[in-house]
């Protein structure tokens, strides 16, 4: 008997283009009295009580499962061509999963013909780079993308055993990786000759040049930080057929996972009485035209919601947290995911008369004729720019 345990070393959430590391440990437990009795016949024929494994390998695959009510299955099967970063092998870890593979990395051999004595264990580290063009992990209504590391191993003359470790991938567009080109220094011929005669060294310049260059991931994270940190307040005058309802201010349109969407409502100059306001963070899942089944244009999913009774208010504010577990904006050949704020305003058909400052007591109307208006405001959600390991460490094991 051999215990196989796999554990992700650097968290369980990764950016596309980032390296993932998984420690895989093969252990042969000590024989107990019961196990010795159970295998006494084998021990009589063979004094070697060690355990043997013929081979073990590991690889990453991304599986795509689709909703057959929304997407043309035959079209998917015809056009589906996974990004296979190796020649096809007989080891196909994704064959037992639902859907079809959209990414398969090259399998890496951990060992061949390994022998373990009772109480002995050996560990191997599997390291792989997630391609930057990989789709993100996503659980939508029409499409689902899920990632796994699959460890396969086999005894001689025995079936292959698989151990799967799920993990999460966040999208990272290639255009985020923008390297700054240093400006060319203008220097004429005489100046260049003069520079050669200067004995002093520019120590500061040498220090900068000796510093290690930023990785593509570091550059992309800095670009995302610049995008999401930029504040540009936008004001929206929201009206209906009866007049002005509210003036809404959103301080920026680009956010990252875990951030709060903050805005303000100004009812001071309203001509229509607003009684309630609700704001919902919604995702819009657009299916590509060539794969769309029927007339379904978009699938909506709602997440956090802000609701407030605002009758008589002059000012109030919006604070809507963005969950860590959602998927940021992304686009593949199959779907396009966007985000929006969905507003619902409950307004009075007739203006509500409120008391002046000298009135001590005021009785609110027992009934109010109301109507509801909706408004959608697009926003952009990007991956978090802090270390993305926001989910617990994943560990799994099997016994063979």
What does this 3D model show about the protein?
The chain has helices spanning 33-38, 40-45, 73-79, 189-196, 203-210, 216-229, and strands at residues 3-8, 13-15, 19-27, 51-66, 83-84, 100-104, 108-116, 121-129, 138-139, 143-154, 161-170, 234-240, 243-250, 254-256, 260-266, 274-287, 298-309, 315-321, 330-331, 335-348, 370-382, 395-399. It has 400 residues and is mostly beta strands. A hairpin with a 3-residue loop joins strand 9 and strand 10 (143-154). It is elongated. The model is unreliable at 35-47 and 180-199 (pLDDT under 50).
In short:
With 400 residues, the protein is mostly beta strands. The protein has helices at residues 33-38, 40-45, 73-79, 189-196, 203-210, 216-229, and strands at 3-8, 13-15, 19-27, 51-66, 83-84, 100-104, 108-116, 121-129, 138-139, 143-154, 161-170, 234-240, 243-250, 254-256, 260-266, 274-287, 298-309, 315-321, 330-331, 335-348, 370-382, 395-399.
Our count of helices gives 6
* Total strand segments: 22
Integer average pLDDT: 82
Strand percent estimate = 35-45%
């Amino acid at each position: 008997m051999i215990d196989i345990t796999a554990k992700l070393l650097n968290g369980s959430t990764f950016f596309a283009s980032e390296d993932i590391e998984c420690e895989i440990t093969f252990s042969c437990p000590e024989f107990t009295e019961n196990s010795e009795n159970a295998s006494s016949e084998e021990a009589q024929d063979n004094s070697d009580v060690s355990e043997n494994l013929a081979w073990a390998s590991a690889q990453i695959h991304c599986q795509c499962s689709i909703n057959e009510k929304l997407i043309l299955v035959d079209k998917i099967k015809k056009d589906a061509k996974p990004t296979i970063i190796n020649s096809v092998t007989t080891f196909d870890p994704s064959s037992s999963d639902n859907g079809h593979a959209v990414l398969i990395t090259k399998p890496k051999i951990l060992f061949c013909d390994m022998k373990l004595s009772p109480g002995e264990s050996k560990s191997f580290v599997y390291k792989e780079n997630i391609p930057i063009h990989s789709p993100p992990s996503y659980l939508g209504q029409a499409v689902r993308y899920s990632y796994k590391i699959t460890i396969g191993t086999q005894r001689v003359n025995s079936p292959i055993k698989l151990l799967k470790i799920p993990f999460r991938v966040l999208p990272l567009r290639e255009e985020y990786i923008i390297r700054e080109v240093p400006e060319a220094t203008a220097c004429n011929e005489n100046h260049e000759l003069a520079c050669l005669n200067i004995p002093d060294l520019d120590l500061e310049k040498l220090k900068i040049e000796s510093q290690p260059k930023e990785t593509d991931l570091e550059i992309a994270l800095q670009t995302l930080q610049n995008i999401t940190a930029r504040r540009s307040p936008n004001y929206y005058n929201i009206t209906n057929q009866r007049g002005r309802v509210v003036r809404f201010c959103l301080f920026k349109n680009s956010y990252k996972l875990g951030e709060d969407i903050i805005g303000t409502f100004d009812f001071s100059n309203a001509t229509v009485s607003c009684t309630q306001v609700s704001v919902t963070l919604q995702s819009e899942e657009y299916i590509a035209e060539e794969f769309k089944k029927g007339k379904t244009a978009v699938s909506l999913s709602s997440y956090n919601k802000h609701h407030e009774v605002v009758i008589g208010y002059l000012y109030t504010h919006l604070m809507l947290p963005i969950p860590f577990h959602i998927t940021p904006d992304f686009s593949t050949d199959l779907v396009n995911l966007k985000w929006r704020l969905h507003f619902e305003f409950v307004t009075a058909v007739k203006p509500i008369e409120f008391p002046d400052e000298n009135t001590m007591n005021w009785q609110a109307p027992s009934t109010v004729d109301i109507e509801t208006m909706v408004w959608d405001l697009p926003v952009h959600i990007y991956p978090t720019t802090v270390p993305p390991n926001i989910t617990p460490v994943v560990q799994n094991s099997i016994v063979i």
